[in-house]
Design brief:
Elements lengths: L3 H14 L5 E4 H4 L12 H12 L2 E8 L2 E8 L1 H4 L1 H37 L1
Antiparallel strand pairs: 1-3, 2-3
Length: about 120
């Protein structure tokens, strides 16, 4: 399971690459000093390497105009991550609906038994 910061970086990389096979991404583009997820420029290296180890992306470090950048290819696992998230959210909503409906049915059966025994 990915952490919040890893999810943020994967979303940014996926949106940047789009349908292209490879894209060039600078660390500053991925950094988020404000907002819900706070990621510094120095954290990006570790996040990119962990995503690469998990098989979501393939990355190569390069220097362009003296600035560190990543040549990133989103793998099939990385492309399927959004679908995986949608499926897990759908499953969680289903489980919540089952729990709520079970509680309602239990309440109604309890009330019915109370009225019969009265």
């Amino acid at each position: 399971m990915l952490s919040g910061k890893e999810r943020y970086v994967l979303k940014k990389v996926s949106s940047k690459c789009g349908e292209k096979k490879y894209c060039l991404v600078y660390r500053e583009e991925l950094a988020s000093p404000s907002g819900r997820v706070k990621i510094g420029v120095k954290e990006i290296d570790g996040l990119i390497s962990s995503l690469s180890l998990d098989g979501y992306i393939d990355s190569v470090v390069t220097y362009r105009n003296g600035v560190r950048a990543y040549c990133i290819a989103v793998t099939e696992k990385g492309k399927g991550y959004k679908r995986e998230q949608t499926n897990s959210r759908r499953y969680m909503i289903f489980r919540l609906a089952v729990a709520v409906s079970s509680a309602v049915i239990t309440f109604l059966v309890g009330r019915l038994l109370y009225l019969i025994a009265k």
